[in-house]
Specification:
The complex is a heterodimer.
Chain A (H helix, E strand, L loop, with lengths): L1 H9 L7 E5 L9 H14 L9
Chain B lengths: L4 H8 L5 E5 H8 L5 H5 L15 H4 L3 E7 L4 E6 L18 H17 L3 E2 L4 E4 L2 E4 L2 E3 L3 E6 L3 H13 L4 E6 L10 H8 L2
Parallel strand pairs in B: 8-9
Antiparallel strand pairs in B: 1-3, 2-3, 4-7, 5-6, 7-8
The chains are: A mainly alpha, B alpha+beta.
Chain lengths: ~55, ~190
């Protein structure tokens, strides 16, 4: 589904303007620290400063 | 960041089926004291987000309040596991459905990643006769959609993202109801669009 989502979004957006990520954890089996790092990496690719402030 | 987010994060990290906390311990976790109503009214501890926004702290973490002892100042949280409500659950019940539980997890991850820069208050825009709603924003410039359901719903989430005017988009998928394979037929269809 990640690839399909990227494919659809790429029809309308430039690659640098979107990110599609698949988390490792779920509400039933959270992996908070791992997933937070996945989010930070995606934001870095969107040119957003990934440093948490809170 | 919400006052009770540290409690949500604390519960997320617990591996046990039940977690008993004194009110004073919760105060240490949230670095603030509980409201007087928490000490006086059992209703404050209801597992219902409607009218009890603070309940999101334990419900998003996958816990519910099992018992509360106002005299001793102790609350026991029990994990929403096998006893979790069936999917979907009526919103009128105020109990989170599996989807809400996963989406709540996605929002918790975003808060853990970027703190208060993530706003979980998504906006809704209307186009023609439909509406597009996003789950939140980062830095008020990145639209965020969190999706944990089947592929059809993921495509709806993509449409919602595309309809909003934010300059960047982030689609967060949670591997609960997603189909991992993408059929060759679908691949061909999208490639030929």
């Amino acid at each position: 589904m990640v690839n399909e989502s990227k494919h659809i979004l790429s029809r309308s957006l430039s690659p640098q303007d979107f990110q599609v990520i698949l988390l490792a954890g779920t509400g039933d089996a959270p992996r908070l620290e791992v997933d937070a790092q996945i989010i930070r990496s995606a934001l870095l690719k969107l040119n957003a400063d990934p440093r948490a402030t809170g | 960041m919400g006052k009770y987010y540290p409690l949500e994060r604390y519960l997320f990290l617990q591996q046990t089926g039940t977690v008993a906390l004194t009110f004073s311990r919760i105060g240490e976790i949230i670095h603030d004291s509980l409201r007087p109503a928490a000490h006086a009214y059992r209703a404050w501890w209801a597992n219902n987000i409607k009218g009890h926004v603070h309940a999101a702290a334990w419900l998003n973490a996958g816990y519910k309040v099992e018992t509360v002892d106002l005299e001793r100042g102790v609350v026991t949280f029990a994990k929403l596991g096998g006893g979790a409500p069936p999917f979907p659950v009526s919103e009128a019940s105020g109990t989170p459905s599996r989807q809400q539980k996963h989406d709540g997890y996605g929002k918790s991850v975003l808060r853990a990643a970027v703190g208060p820069r993530f706003s979980a208050y998504g906006t809704t825009i209307t186009y023609d006769t439909s509406q597009a709603r996003i789950d939140g924003t980062v830095d008020a410039m990145i639209a965020v959609e969190i999706e944990s359901r089947a592929n059809k719903q993921v495509r709806g989430a993509i449409l919602d993202l595309l309809m909003h005017p934010y300059s960047k988009r982030l689609l967060v998928l949670i591997p609960s109801g997603l189909v991992s394979t993408w059929s060759t037929r679908a691949s061909t269809f999208y490639r030929d669009l």
